[in-house]
Specification:
4 copies of one chain form a homotetramer.
Chain A: E1 8-12, H1 25-37, E2 42-45, H2 57-71, E3 76-79, H3 85-98, E4 102-105, H4 113-128, E5 134-138, H5 140-143, H6 149-158, E6 162-167, H7 173-184, E7 191-194, H8 201-207, E8 211-212, H9 219-230, H10 234-251, H11 257-267, H12 285-301, H13 307-313
Parallel strand pairs in A: 1-2, 1-8, 2-3, 3-4, 4-5, 5-6, 6-7, 7-8
Helix pairs in contact in A: 1-2, 2-3, 3-4, 4-6, 8-9, 9-10, 10-12, 12-13
Chain lengths: 314, 314, 314, 314
């Protein structure tokens, strides 16, 4: 079960489709193996970048079952965000029964005031069952909702099963510092994994994050940056990260970024198809050429990238 | 099957729950009978005021099955709005198989530009099956999305299964006039039923609406106003409507209105419980007293209100 | 100077333009006289319905000077909402020097969290000068910002010059009750005047409002309803209010409502022109006919309406 | 006068304040000299990152006067975005009289439908005078408004004085390609300068942009990247850009970015104070240390950075 000691990289998994838009369950196995091979510490499925709202209920279950089975000992976190509590509770029960390690919840955008957000998560905590660990996803760019640090503290204080913050406020560096400062004055510790494409990962780790929960097409870079920072090798961590930054930045385009990620994963030989379900679309010809250029440059400059990335970039 | 000749009152049905929050299926029969007894021309379920997002998939199916069975020959329209196309298609297939007359779709708020809205509905039309009639719900107060008249025309031109406009733009009177004007210059005819609590019903009918698709706690008033207006008895229609306007206005409070409606339906003896699922809440003590006052005044001044309403108000 | 004992009707003044869009300063005198003649207790200018953002800085000053001069002993409140503090402070200083009784501030929509709202008003309070009384305008329908009751309490506690709440949350009845309840547990008293078209005025007064700050085209009705409610003549107050409700409701259409109001004021002989500055537009032909119908019906049913209204309706 | 042949770097100028928040007009001269010394092709003042809404009307004029006088032959573009047309027209007249080369207009967020945006710009074009060249600012991240390419085409077709697109949609690369494609089928040519921090500058130039209109703290990098790309030295352009990307990315944090930029400009010796007017705040201690680190790394890796940057970074 997921708890507040979680650290490292929980990769945000894409959802593989075949060329007709059907779930690619065989490809799901391959993808899970790839993630495991990159050295990730966990897998998060059915997040926003996992096209969760595009799956019918039964498809969500089928995909979760496959990933959880394949991931073996790797913990699997499942996004269960929903416009209502009953569907959220139904999906949570199903995936926890399948062996998920916990669930992730992004609040809807229209909550009213600090109290509205606290009450929302308290209701979630109760509806999913207080023995189900959950990740509070703080992602204003996606839902327009600002979650103050004081609200996070109140959720933590009243929901024992809130054990992780998926931090993707933007700007967000000072927020990590502020959350950790609260812990020094008595707030229960949370695991903090950063999302938002990992665009500030080395700094975020120094501010107090425990790792990343994002889906960059080169998970091994995220893993290695976390390792280097943990080892106190700051300059090397930045060097590696900065070498990837042109592509990280390119992948971090709202809406368009998932097409970039799926294209890169296909180029790396991980995905058989980079199709997204509608309204998602594939990259344009020009975009593909730009990604190819970035992959090429990445291939030439990064010494620690694993075999796969070099092959893709060559 | 629903088509562009639909007219009269398609009542927006509430969803009855018991005091513990479970679906009240027996109460559903009683509610369907009540609506039929008011003389409505159809029933619309799983709309926003039907707490649709609060139901798990199986509950939606169960509720739809019960209403469709009980409604007999009355057409039942089912709201299938969803954040993704696969869940929308799955629910549509299920309810059409159960005998629904058509489905209703409110677009999400973040669509981009006129083309984005047109493309959205074209994708819906294809995903639900082009033989499934659908209602385009135009409700900017709820989703922040303005749908220009020219966009409605383009949807109608390219989606043969778009056969009705649920009009609840606000302000919206001139929009009805504009849509009907387009029809004079070649746009295919749509049925237009007005929502938004029916706050402008008599005027809307004169502007060209075919009726109402809203859920006011006195459906018989909506039915009678439509009848009077169709008969050219304008002053009587306004007299009746204006007698109800204090309560119509009171019920038309965003967020709070459903609690008012359920309270009034319980006072009228239609609902066993006025419980809403969370995050909905019951009316406050003060609000209850105000509704009681309005029901009292309504009882005293409205001669055509049916027996039930008088009993409630006494 | 405005203070927390303010009560009655502070009419939200329109801004009169001539047919070419210039400020109609002579018409401004006539308008101020009309408002005074209706028995209002104050005049609020340069609010949202006063087309404030459409005036250049010098025009705002000129209009304020004229109204303040003409209003004599009637207190004049001036809307000074602005995207930045320096323009707000500049306008405040100018109008207070001219003799305004206080200013009104609506916050921008994007404030973050409860603290963000409190800080915003604290900065306002400081920037306009702590000896300038200000009205906190709570109008989520216009700016998308929910202001929790606890936030209002914190603003009141830390800003001695915050002396009035312009209440136009919607739904908002329980909010008035909640603010008054806080006062019982120690919060400093605020004057509460309701806006939002006065759509719930008699109930709002019973909940604890001190009056109205709205701009309905028949200010004398607002004045009389306040008087009747203060005298404990509840049924009469509702009777009068409900007779006007069809027009109140018609005027309370977001965006379109000001055109309705200006049209009605022109029909009553108060305004020489009902022109709004762009992007505002006049009422359509159909809308004009509907207002005429409502004025006609109002003329027939309202015994206390003053002479002007009967003339207009005839 | 600005026209559609404009190219290169129009730097988005910060507005210098002294430590008490007053306009620093002497510092304004120094800043203008710095920008000119970096080789920029124009200066854009009173943009969003110029804290425009925080200036009172007279301050805006005073600042514009000073920059225009100091800039000499360098064209100065002035942001005149305003919630209403009269203030926009008043500021435009004032700054054009002072010698501005043109104005820049960002639309408000709430425009309705494609037609609403077109009409808005047509009204602007008329209100500022059809002989005043204007820049259409397309910045959805700031105002939530998506401007479709077809809308841009319609504005260009009907507003002869619309001569430049400030492109900062995000993602936006394919949008540049789409605008240029329209020109091939008959749309009048626009200058396209990219904003959004220049986060994709080399790619944007290849897609068809004519340069940048952004305010990165090292304008000389923007100038040089434009020069290298124009010379067909693609790899060198990317090398230089990518060396700056860690800082570009750091500066491109919504809300927080301006504090970063002002801090960096102060460290470089350009600004005497990095104070922002409220609600802006200075960088935190941790943020300052991170910028210092980035400046250090930049100093070590960038061979073409001019003297000032090396000094700052050492």
């Amino acid at each position: 079960m997921l708890n507040e000691t979680a650290r490292g990289v929980f990769i945000i998994s894409v959802t593989p489709f075949d060329e007709r838009g059907g779930l690619d369950l065989d490809g799901t196995d391959r993808l899970a193996d790839f993630y495991a091979g990159c050295g990730v510490d966990g897998i998060t499925i059915l997040g926003m970048m996992g096209e969760a709202p595009k799956l019918a209920h039964e498809e969500s279950i089928a995909f979760a079952r496959r990933v959880i089975a394949r991931a073996g000992k790797l913990p699997v976190v499942v996004g269960v965000s929903a416009p209502g509590f009953a569907p959220m509770a139904a999906l949570t029960k199903a995936v926890m029964d399948l062996g998920a390690a916990g669930v992730m919840i992004a609040p809807p955008g229209g909550l009213k005031g600090d109290d509205g957000i606290v009450t929302y998560f308290q209701t979630c905590a109760e509806m999913i069952g207080t023995d189900t660990p959950f990740v509070l996803q703080d992602f204003p760019l996606a839902n327009g909702l600002h979650i103050p640090v004081g609200v996070i503290e109140r959720v933590v204080a009243t929901c024992p099963n809130c054990i992780m913050l998926k931090h993707e406020d933007w700007p967000g560096l000072d927020k990590i510092t502020a959350v950790r400062a609260r812990e020094k004055s008595g707030m229960r510790r949370l695991s903090i994994l950063v999302g938002n494409g990992g665009l500030f990962l080395p700094f975020e780790l120094e501010r107090g994050a425990d790792g990343a929960m994002t889906g960059y097409a080169f998970p091994e870079m995220l893993v290695e940056v976390c390792r280097l920072m943990a080892a106190g090798r700051r300059s090397e961590a930045h060097d590696l990260f900065d070498a990837h930054l042109p592509l990280v930045r390119y992948e971090q385009q709202p809406g368009a970024g998932l097409a970039v990620r799926k294209y890169a994963l296909r180029k790396r030989g991980i995905l058989a198809s980079d199709l997204q379900r509608k309204p998602g679309a594939r990259v344009s010809r020009e975009t593909a050429a730009e990604i190819d250029w970035l992959l090429d440059r990445l291939g030439g400059s990064v010494s620690i990238a694993p075999r796969e990335s070099r092959r893709a970039a060559s």
